[in-house]
Amino acid sequence: MKLLLDTQCWLWWFAEPERLNEEATTCIADESNELWFSAASVWEIAIKVAYGKLSLPEPIDTCI
């Protein structure tokens, strides 16, 4: 199955996985699923990090 992760879902998966429900966690963790991530989400995250409105546990270039 192909899964398109929105920005918030990806951020939770990366930084706060406990915020996702069990079904979402199971689907994302299933290696038979193909995860997709929008270029707009990458842009959104980069802008928020640059303006100091979002901090990530690791540098942005290691997590996208």
How does the helix and strand content classify structurally? alpha+beta
Total separate domains: 1
The overall pLDDT, averaged over residues, is 89
**What string gives the helices and strands in order?**
EHHEHH
Q: What percent strand?
A: 5-15%
* Rounded Rg: 12 Å
Low-confidence stretches: none
Please work out how many helical segments DSSP would assign.
Answer: 4
Sheet having the most strands: 2 strands, parallel
Helical residue percent band:
40-55%
Tell the overall outline. Answer: globular
Based on the model shown, name its key terms.
alpha+beta, two-stranded parallel ribbon, 4 helices, 2 strands, 52% helix, globular
Structure description:
The chain has a two-stranded parallel ribbon. The protein is globular, with a radius of gyration of 12 Å. The longest helix has 12 residues, at 39-50. The mean pLDDT is 89. It has 4 helices and 2 strands; from the N terminus they run βααβαα. The protein is α+β, with helices and mostly antiparallel strands and 64 residues long. It has one domain (2-63). 52% of the residues lie in helices and 12% in strands.
Question: How is the topology of this model organized?
Answer:
Elements: E1 2-5, H1 7-15, H2 22-29, E2 34-37, H3 39-50, H4 60-63
Give a quick summary of the entry:
The protein has one domain. The chain contains four helices and two strands. The protein has helices spanning 7-15, 22-29, 39-50, 60-63, and strands at residues 2-5, 34-37.
